[in-house]
Structures are given as C-alpha cells and as structure tokens.
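Handoff note, outgoing to incoming analyst
You'll be picking up this chain. Sequence as last confirmed:
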Amino acid sequence: MLIQFSIQSLSNWLCLFIVDIFMGGITLTLKTGLIVTILLTSFEMVFEDKENKSES
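Most recent structure output, in case you need it:
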C-alpha cells in the first residue's frame, strides 16, 4: 500500500508540475504542490477502495 501511494503521489506531483510550468497564471510552491499531491492521492485511494468494495 505504501508503494502504491508513493507511485500515485509521484504521478500526481508530476502532472501538477507540468501544468505549473506550462500555465503562466498558476504558480505553486514546492510545499503547496506536495500538500495538494498528498491530498489528491489520499482521496483517490479512499474512493477507489469504496468503489471496489461496492462492486464485490
């Protein structure tokens, strides 16, 4: 589970980083990017688990 969280966090952070570079109107600090990434990954994993349990 820790490995899955790490990989998903890395991919989410990479997406945010790319958007931050290409869009001039958005400026994220490293700290803000990491906090948003951790929140997004946590929400993804929680809702993914709920969907998997309801399908079973």
